[in-house]
């Protein structure tokens, strides 16, 4: 049987692990002087942290049909053609996204990721190559700037009806550093962001609309024209959703520059800024003009999805203000601090005007609630 | 609506998290001086390790119908009555087992667990109380001797068709210590074990036989008599499967006593001893008399399951030699070392007799292979 055609169930655990280690072992060897025992070597992995460093830990699960759909992984060409078969790249993208969202949480503390542990559950019918490609995707996420020291320290393989992956990311924060904290934004601070806003949400809308229950509807001549004019933008938005590349250097850079409040935007700017405001006991005033300007760039996506101009503006603003899984980094910086490269000002932190910390904005956007249950 | 009756889907993520934190926050507060930021406080948890310590990491997923069945969680009374409804205790036991198997891997390195990260996926129809009870079970596992410093550092909640839990355990090993290693067994070492052998496998056989597709078959008068005589043993075996309590102090104790080779028995003595032999490049000679003696205590379980005497002996020996999920700790100690409390000698390590490292035993047991895929 062609190796590529055997399933994980046919191959068995040992063969799958061999396949995985062919990718993981050389990857770890290239960067892992701090990894004394890696995956499969013993009961647990053994790492040597930098002397005096603090330990940063986060975990996140991504499940098929809850957090992603295989049919999302199609290029803009397929979008234009109305064709949405999961392509060869899909498992690699799942690996990249699962790793990236955890790496982003480490960066958002101002820390550097040092290790990932990966538990992968998948149907026995998945091809052996799926697992290898998934791990290639994890490796790709770790090759982003800011994750140079991150190794794959351990993992687990199991069987389930759908693909589900849980990644735990481990990071280091220098001794004595408070990190970038939700509770550390102070009145007078500048609110700044590194990374785009709204693109992942716009990309999700494109992917979901085009891969609906009918399996991809044909597109109109108007859509074809918008697509031709904005092909790059559409691709960028879809990739923001399917293959996020969080700015992993931004957290440590913000901390080094004197930033103090901070978090990544995983549930949308409005919700996450509200968390920052609550934890710090402050009001956060958003710069409505700047955000409106950022939204403008996304209007062609809303138009492609059939929204008339006024609605398109509103839709684009909702993506910018409420879009989740964005992995942009929100930071607050004391007045006078020069923002590090990549950050732009989107508001400011003030004393809370009454008893309740708030996010203050003149923009009215649609309900952007989200619950994982 | 009665709080106990609402489901996690009805309650929503925030209410479930509140429920979880009512258990986790006071637990962490009692022991977590090293936990600067715990679950939900920020993008990631922040811990201060002991100065100079090495970091030990492991992860493991446990899924319903793959790794456990709800109907297992019944007491011996229900076994006797042939009734197998999952009782109230079931979610707590799932939490204990999921945590214990990860804590065991940390101990098996000779390390002390310091933190768990818990990702829980469950159907929206599960009662809110299920989640709270699950966390109570995790707390119970951490209250075992040897896990005194372990906190719950973070977690994730998600939706899925069946219950699935991934736990990552973090531990500390003193600076400069090699830990208990698979590759460190040396000729002349005594092979010793801490914790029972075969009980979890015997318990699994009881649970599976009694909770078969028919949902619990009525038991015969002979079975009733065996049950009455051996009720305590049967209960101990079933609990070894449903609520394992690995000897978490054994790993650090082995290391302190001068032990060097070691691992926990998660896939059965024969398979795991073979891994130890291979990694260390040695032969491992098992003490067949000692193991036969240990097996004898489990014969009543085999008899209960309808095996005639000769088969019962063979079955019990297969449990002792091949039973997985045992979480006993295997260690090797240089000659002359006094075994720490709780360890007993079950064999010895020798130079390998020919090119291939082997486990040497006169016992012939049934096929004990296992693949997680």
UniProtKB/TrEMBL annotation, chains A, B:
Claim: Zinc is one of the keywords in the record: no
InterPro entries assigned: PurM-like_C_sf (IPR036676), PurM-like_N (IPR016188), PurM-like_N_sf (IPR036921), ThiL-like (IPR006283)
Database matches in HAMAP family: TMP_kinase
Keywords associated with the record: ATP-binding, Kinase, Magnesium, Metal-binding, Nucleotide-binding, Thiamine biosynthesis, Transferase
Residues the entry annotates as binding Mg(2+) 5: 267
Domain PurM-like N-terminal: 42-172
Protein name (record): Thiamine-monophosphate kinase
Segments passing through the bilayer: none
Pathway: Cofactor biosynthesis; thiamine diphosphate biosynthesis; thiamine diphosphate from thiamine phosphate: step 1/1
Binding site for ATP: 135, 155-156, 182, 266
EC number of this enzyme: 2.7.4.16
Chain sites annotated for binding substrate: 67, 325, 370
Additional notes on this entry: Reaction mechanism of ThiL seems to utilize a direct, inline transfer of the gamma-phosphate of ATP to TMP rather than a phosphorylated enzyme intermediate.
Matches recorded under Pfam families: AIRS
List of residues binding Mg(2+) 4: 43, 58, 105
Magnesium is among the record's keywords: yes
Recorded catalytic activity of this chain's protein: thiamine phosphate + ATP = thiamine diphosphate + ADP
Binding site for Mg(2+) 2: 60, 105
GO function terms (MF aspect): thiamine-phosphate kinase activity
Residues annotated to bind Mg(2+) 3: 43, 105, 264
Cited NCBIfam families: thiL (TIGR01379)
Function (record text): Catalyzes the ATP-dependent phosphorylation of thiamine-monophosphate (TMP) to form thiamine-pyrophosphate (TPP), the active form of vitamin B1.
SUPFAM superfamilies assigned: PurM C-terminal domain-like (SSF56042), PurM N-terminal domain-like (SSF55326)
Encoding gene (name): thiL
Binding site for Mg(2+) 1: 59-60, 156
Family to which the UniProt record says this protein belongs: Belongs to the thiamine-monophosphate kinase family.
């Amino acid at each position: 049987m062609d190796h590529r055609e055997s399933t994980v169930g046919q191959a068995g655990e040992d063969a799958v692990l061999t396949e995985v280690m062919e990718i993981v072992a050389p990857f770890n060897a290239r960067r892992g002087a701090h990894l004394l025992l890696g995956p499969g070597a013993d009961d647990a992995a053994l790492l040597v942290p930098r002397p005096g460093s603090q330990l940063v830990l986060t975990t996140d699960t991504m499940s098929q049909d809850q957090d992603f759909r295989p049919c999302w992984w199609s290029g803009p060409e397929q979008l234009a053609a109305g064709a949405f078969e999961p392509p060869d790249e899909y498992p690699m993208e799942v690996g990249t996204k699962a790793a990236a969202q955890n790496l982003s949480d480490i960066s958002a503390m101002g820390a550097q990721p040092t290790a990932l542990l990966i538990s992968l559950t998948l149907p026995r019918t998945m091809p052996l190559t799926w697992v290898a490609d998934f791990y290639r995707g994890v490796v790709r996420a770790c090759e982003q700037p800011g994750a140079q020291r991150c190794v794959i320290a351990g993992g687990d393989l199991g069987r389930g009806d759908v693909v589900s992956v849980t990644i735990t990311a481990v990071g280091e924060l220098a001794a004595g550093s408070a990190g970038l904290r939700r509770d550390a934004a102070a009145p007078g601070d500048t609110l700044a962001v590194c990374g785009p806003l709204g693109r992942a949400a716009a990309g999700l809308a494109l992917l979901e609309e085009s891969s609906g229950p009918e399996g991809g509807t044909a597109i109109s001549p108007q859509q074809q024209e918008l697509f031709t004019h904005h092909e790059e933008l559409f691709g960028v938005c879809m990739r923001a959703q399917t293959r996020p590349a969080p700015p992993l250097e931004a957290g440590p850079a913000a901390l080094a520059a004197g930033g103090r409040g901070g978090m990544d935007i995983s549930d949308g700017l409005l919700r996450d800024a509200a968390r920052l405001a609550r934890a710090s006991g402050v009001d956060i005033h958003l710069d409505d003009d700047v955000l409106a300007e950022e939204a403008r760039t996304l209007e062609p996506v809303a138009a492609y999805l059939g929204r008339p101009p006024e609605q398109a503006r509103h839709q684009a603003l909702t993506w910018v203000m409420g879009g989740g899984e964005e992995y942009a980094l929100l930071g607050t910086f004391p007045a006078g601090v020069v923002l590090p490269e990549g950050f732009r000002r989107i508001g400011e932190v003030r004393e809370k005007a009454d008893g309740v910390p708030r996010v203050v904005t003149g923009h009215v956007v649609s309900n952007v609630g989200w619950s994982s249950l």
